[in-house]
Amino acid sequence: MRRQAERAQQEAERDAAIAHLRELRQQMTSVHLQSFSPVHPPVLPGPPQLGLHWALAEDKAFHLAGLGAFARTERAAAKLRAEHDAPRYLAAEQARSYGVHGELSAEAQQWW
């Protein structure tokens, strides 16, 4: 009888250990069952769209800087220079902007 009690005790301990191991296995294999959204590479917005109107305004501000309100001849000449320089300034700024955008895109792709 004592032997049966010891055997029953051992079987109970074994069954508890098996149940514990099954619980651990269940916990380890069901941790990441949640689904995640797919990942995508970073997308950078394009460079800003600059227009001739913007370039002319920037060029006028540059050429008129430091000229007084009563220096009408100099102001008129500065406005003419601004109108002449605006297309080149626009092209240079667009090239610079696209260059910076290309560098940032390359860095983003390298990071990805």
Explain this structure.
This protein is mainly α. The chain has three helices and no strands. It has helices spanning 2-29, 52-64, 72-111. Helix 2 packs across helix 3 (72-111). The radius of gyration is 38 Å and the shape is rod-shaped.
Quick tags:
mainly alpha; 3 helices; 112 residues
Ordered list of secondary-structure elements with their pairings:
Blueprint: H1 2-29, H2 52-64, H3 72-111
**Intertermini distance:** 70 Å
Query: What ranges have pLDDT less than 50 throughout 5 or more consecutive residues?
Result: none
Largest sheet entry: none
Order of helices and strands: HHH
By DSSP (H or I, 4+ residues per run), the number of helices equals 3
Count of DSSP E strands?
A: 0
Query: Taking Cα atoms only, what radius of gyration do you get, to the nearest Å?
Result: 38 Å
Strand content: under 5%
Which percent range fits the helix content?
Answer: over 70%
Shape: rod-shaped
Overall pLDDT score: 91
Provide the structure class. Answer: mainly alpha
